[in-house]
Write a structure and sequence with these properties.
With 124 residues, the protein is mainly beta. 0% of the residues lie in helices and 49% in strands. The strands form two sheets. Strands 2, 4, 5, 6, 9, 10 and 11 form a seven-stranded mixed β-sheet that branches. The protein has a four-stranded antiparallel β-sheet with strand order 1-3-8-7, with no helix packed on it. The radius of gyration is 13 Å and the shape is globular.
Length: 124
């Protein structure tokens, strides 16, 4: 059973930074891709970023150049470094596991395990 636990959310002013962490257990972290999604208030869940086991990264256009996804295999942890935050980045952020040979990195249906989410609120 894979478990994912996010942390690091909070309230920050526009232009500020946060780092989200997602600690994984129970899976094969070394071969699985990991992703971050977010759900803004009243909207659908959307893709933010993903990273493969080999370190290849994918980003939504809305966060390119501001967010960076990384992973530490020794700690079984994936991070989302968020800079130049905007009020429209306000959302619940979820990490998720994409198993090997699943579908597109950009689609939530390609991910099988999800964390409980962490709230990020950016004030203007």
């Amino acid at each position: 059973q894979v478990q994912l636990v996010e942390s690091g959310g909070g309230l920050v002013q526009a232009g500020g930074s946060l780092r989200l962490s997602c600690a994984a257990s129970g899976g094969n972290f070394n071969v699985d891709a990991m992703g971050w999604f977010r759900q803004p208030p009243g909207k659908e869940r959307e893709f933010v970023a993903a990273i493969t086991s080999g370190g290849v990264t994918y980003y939504a256009d809305s966060v390119k150049g501001r967010f960076t996804i990384s992973r530490d295999t020794a700690k079984n942890t994936v991070y989302l470094h968020m800079n130049s935050l905007k009020p429209e980045d306000t959302a619940i952020y979820y990490c998720a596991r994409r198993p090997v040979r699943a579908g597109s990195y950009y689609y939530s249906a390609s991910y099988d395990y999800w964390g409980q989410g962490t709230q990020v609120t950016v004030s203007s």
